[in-house]
């Protein structure tokens, strides 16, 4: 079976369109985010995101994963603008989106707020989680850690119901021989972000993964290139990989970057996994290859 290539980008923070912030929003957390955007808009640049997407498309990946924070205030106007941006990328079946904390910054309601993104969340046509998408040799387990939070908090939460469904999905024998890829916005391992930005029920998620296993976890949120590991069944290690913001120019955070993840099924079973990092290197124009490395791979 040929190599299957998944591209991973995160935290594009699309520029808020006109009307993204209304007078009623001064009474919500969106006011703080709008004030913060005055500085952040100098970091998150649309021309940087455009260049990254062009570089990614030139590589012709088989599937693209976007791990959240398409918006900044989570207003209906922003959600609609993000939907149009997703439509411009290509067929929804070729892209999987896991919402981020900024996508659920304020407002009421649960996952239904992402109804217009349903074609990019999974194959059910619904805004529900987890969803499992089978693409080639890969089973993508798409989670949602995006929930509204109090001011000055950027935490996430999966909740017992989503975790129970994930446990059952990972245990499904139909996925036993596939490369099992888990996607969420918030990093699940310790030390990746501060407590006010962490995943509240990360320990519960780690218990599910330790019991059921996975081949790779992808996340965003930290705005840094991170490589970690979680404990899997029988002492195995599950790699955890994060990328910086896809729209970030060089600043105090890492500049824009995306990962090409090459998944190669082995004749005797199992997989070999390699990562090609591409992004902005300060002092150089455009995007270039930043490095290559291999991840721990499942053996038959």
Short description:
The protein is an alpha/beta fold.
Can you offer a commentary on this structure?
By secondary structure, the protein is an alpha/beta fold. It has a single domain (4-295), classed as Metallo-dependent phosphatases (Purple Acid Phosphatase, chain A, domain 2, 4-Layer Sandwich), CATH 3.60.21.10. It is 22% helix and 24% strand. The protein has 6 helices and 12 strands. A 6-stranded mixed beta sheet has the order 3-2-1-10-11-12. A 6-stranded mixed beta sheet has the order 4-5-6-7-9-8, covered by helices on one side. β2 (63-66), α3 (76-89) and β3 (95-97) form a beta-alpha-beta unit. α5 (160-171) packs parallel to α6. It is globular. The mean pLDDT is 91.
Largest sheet: 6 strands, mixed
Number of helices: 6
Rounded radius of gyration (Å): 18 Å
Question: From the 3D coordinates, which CATH architecture would you assign?
Answer: 4-Layer Sandwich
Order of helix and strand elements from N to C terminus? EHHEHEHEEHEHEEEEEE
Write out the CATH superfamily name. Metallo-dependent phosphatases
Helix content: 10-25%
Question: How many separate domains make up the residues?
Answer: 1
What distinguishing features does this structure have?
alpha/beta, Purple Acid Phosphatase, chain A, domain 2, 6 helices, 22% helix
SSE layout:
Blueprint: E1 4-9, H1 30-40, H2 46-58, E2 63-66, H3 76-89, E3 95-97, H4 118-121, E4 131-135, E5 138-142, H5 160-171, E6 179-183, H6 202-212, E7 216-219, E8 226-231, E9 237-242, E10 257-265, E11 271-280, E12 287-295
Parallel strand pairs: 1-2, 2-3, 5-6, 6-7, 7-9
Antiparallel strand pairs: 1-10, 4-5, 8-9, 10-11, 11-12
Helix pairs in contact: 5-6
């Amino acid at each position: 079976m040929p190599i299957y290539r998944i591209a991973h980008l995160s935290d594009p923070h699309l520029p808020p369109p006109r009307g993204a912030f209304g007078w009623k929003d001064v009474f919500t957390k969106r006011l703080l985010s709008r004030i913060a955007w005055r500085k952040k808009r100098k970091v998150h640049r649309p021309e940087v995101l455009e260049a990254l997407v062009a570089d990614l498309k030139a590589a012709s990946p088989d599937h693209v994963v976007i791990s959240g924070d398409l918006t900044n205030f989570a207003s209906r106007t922003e959600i609609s603008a993000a939907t149009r941006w997703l439509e411009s990328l290509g067929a929804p079946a070729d892209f999987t989106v896991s919402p981020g904390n900024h996508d659920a910054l304020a407002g009421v309601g649960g996952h239904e707020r992402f109804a217009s993104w349903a074609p990019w969340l999974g194959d059910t046509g619904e805004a529900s989680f987890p969803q499992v998408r089978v693409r080639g040799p890969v089973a993508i387990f798409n989670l949602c850690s995006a929930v509204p939070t109090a001011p000055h908090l950027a935490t996430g939460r999966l909740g017992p119901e989503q975790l129970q469904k994930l446990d059952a999905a990972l245990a499904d024998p139909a996925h036993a021989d596939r490369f099992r890829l888990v996607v969420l916005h918030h990093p699940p391992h310790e030390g990746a972000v501060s407590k006010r930005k962490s995943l509240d029920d990360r320990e519960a998620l780690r218990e599910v993964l330790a019991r059921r296993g996975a081949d790779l976890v992808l996340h965003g949120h930290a705005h840094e290139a991170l490589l970690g590991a979680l404990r899997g069944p029988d002492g195995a290690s599950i790699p955890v990989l994060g990328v910086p913001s896809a729209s970030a120019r060089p600043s105090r955070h890492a500049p824009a970057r995306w990962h090409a993840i090459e998944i190669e099924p082995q004749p005797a079973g199992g997989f070999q996994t390699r990562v090609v990092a591409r992004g902005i290197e300060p002092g150089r124009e455009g995007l270039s290859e930043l490095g290559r490395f291999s991840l721990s791979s499942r053996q038959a």
